[in-house]
C-alpha cells in the first residue's frame, strides 16, 4: 500500500530587504515592453533596446504583464521546492552534464572551487518547456513538477512571451523580418529552454575568502537570451569594458535581461555579451535567502550562423560560414563547462564549435 505524501502548501514569499550598503551600481537601460503593441511601439522599443545591446548587452524590462502576485508566486514556488521536498525527491531527475543536458536538479557541494577544498554553494532545478506534444515529459519526474505542473506551465509560457517580444525587437534592430528570431525559438520547437529555480547557500567568511568571495565565476550565458526575475539580494555583477565590476541594482517587478552566446553569433558580434558573476552578498544580506528565478532561451536544431542582416552587411559584419546547430553548440558548451570534477579558474580557456569560439572563464 502506497502512503500519500502530506506536503505543506507553498508559503507566502517575503522578499528580503534591500541592502543599505553603498554599492557601485551599473547604469542599465530600462525598456517598457508594454508599448510593444502600440502604434509605432515596436520601432520605438527597438531604438531603445539597440542602445543596450550595442553597449553592454544587459538591460531591465518592465511593463511585461507579469503581475506582482505572479512574481511573488514564482519565488514562493522556488522556496517551496528547496525547503519542502526531500533530497531523494529532488534527485528524481538529475542534470546530465556528461550529455550536455541541463534539465533536472543539481545538488550543491559536488564540486570544489578554484583548486581549494571549498565546495560550490548552489543548488538548481531546471525545468524544460511544457510543449503541446509533451516531448519533455520524461524530464518531469520530480514530485514538485508533477504537483505544480499547471502553474509552472503558465509561468513558463508567460516568461517566454516576454522573450518572444524581445526576439522580435532584435530582428527589427538587424533589419530582418520581424519573426526571424522568434520563429527560430518558437515555444513548441525542440530546444533546451528552461525555467530555473536556483538557491545559493551562505558560506563562512573564511571559506569565501579562499575563493575570492566568488559564488559564481565570471561567465557568459550559453543560449540566446536570459530573463532574471527581480533579485533583491545583491551579488550579481557585470564587467564593464574597462574591466571594472559593477552591481546590478534590483528593479521592482522588473526582469533583468542579457544577451547570450548564440545571439552574439547570429549578430556577427554586433550584439554585445556582458560577462557577469555572483559574489558574496553585503553583510546586511548575507543570511537572506538568495533564491533566483530565471527563464533561459536557447536555440534548438537551427542554424546559428550569422544572420543575413542588411545592417550587418552594411557594417561589414556579415560572413557566409558553414552552418552550426544551436543544439550542438548549447549542449557542447554545457558539457565543456560543467562536466568537470571541479570548478577551476580557466581564465584563458575557450570553447569552439565550427567557426564560433567563446572565452570560457573570466575571473
UniProtKB/TrEMBL annotation:
GO molecular function per UniProt: metal ion binding; oxidoreductase activity
Keyword Metal-binding included in the entry's annotation: yes
Biological process terms in GO annotation: small molecule biosynthetic process
Regions crossing the membrane: none
PROSITE patterns: FE2OG_OXY
PANTHER family: 2-OXOGLUTARATE (2OG) AND FE(II)-DEPENDENT OXYGENASE SUPERFAMILY PROTEIN-RELATED
Protein name: Clavaminate synthase-like protein
Amino acid at each position: 500500500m502506497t502512503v500519500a505524501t502530506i506536503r505543506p502548501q507553498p508559503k507566502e514569499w517575503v522578499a528580503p530587504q534591500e541592502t543599505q550598503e553603498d554599492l557601485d551600481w551599473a547604469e542599465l537601460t530600462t525598456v517598457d515592453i508594454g508599448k510593444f503593441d502600440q502604434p509605432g511601439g515596436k520601432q520605438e522599443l527597438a531604438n531603445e533596446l539597440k542602445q543596450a545591446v550595442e553597449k553592454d548587452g544587459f538591460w531591465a524590462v518592465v511593463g511585461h504583464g507579469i503581475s506582482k502576485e505572479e512574481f511573488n508566486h514564482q519565488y514562493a514556488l522556488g522556496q517551496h521546492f528547496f525547503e519542502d521536498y526531500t533530497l531523494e525527491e529532488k534527485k528524481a531527475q538529475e542534470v546530465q552534464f556528461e550529455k550536455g543536458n541541463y534539465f533536472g536538479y543539481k545538488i550543491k557541494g559536488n564540486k570544489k572551487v578554484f583548486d581549494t577544498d571549498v565546495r560550490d554553494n548552489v543548488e538548481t532545478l531546471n525545468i524544460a518547456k511544457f510543449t503541446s506534444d509533451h516531448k519533455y515529459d520524461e524530464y518531469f519526474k520530480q514530485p514538485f513538477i508533477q504537483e505544480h505542473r499547471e502553474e509552472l506551465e503558465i509561468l513558463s509560457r508567460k516568461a517566454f512571451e516576454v522573450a518572444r517580444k524581445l526576439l522580435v525587437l532584435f530582428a527589427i534592430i538587424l533589419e530582418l523580418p520581424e519573426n526571424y528570431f522568434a520563429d527560430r525559438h518558437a515555444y513548441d520547437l525542440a530546444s533546451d529552454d528552461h525555467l530555473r529555480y536556483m538557491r545559493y547557500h551562505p558560506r563562512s567568511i573564511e571559506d569565501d575568502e579562499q575563493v575570492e568571495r566568488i559564488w559564481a565565476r565570471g561567465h557568459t550565458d550559453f543560449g540566446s537570451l536570459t530573463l532574471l526575475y527581480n533579485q533583491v539580494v545583491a551579488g550579481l555583477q557585470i564587467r564593464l569594458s574597462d574591466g571594472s565590476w559593477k552591481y546590478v541594482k534590483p528593479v521592482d517587478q522588473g526582469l533583468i535581461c542579457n544577451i547570450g552566446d548564440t545571439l552574439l553569433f547570429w549578430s556577427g558580434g554586433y550584439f554585445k555579451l556582458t560577462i557577469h558573476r555572483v559574489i558574496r552578498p553585503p553583510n546586511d544580506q548575507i543570511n537572506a535567502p538568495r533564491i533566483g528565478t530565471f527563464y533561459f532561451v536557447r536555440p534548438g536544431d537551427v542554424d546559428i550562423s550569422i544572420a543575413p542582416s542588411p545592417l550587418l552587411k552594411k557594417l561589414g559584419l556579415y560572413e557566409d560560414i558553414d552552418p552550426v546547430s544551436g543544439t550542438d553548440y548549447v549542449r557542447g558548451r554545457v558539457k565543456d563547462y560543467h562536466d568537470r570534477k571541479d570548478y577551476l579558474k580557466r581564465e584563458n580557456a575557450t570553447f569552439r564549435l565550427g567557426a564560433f569560439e567563446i572565452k570560457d572563464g573570466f575571473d
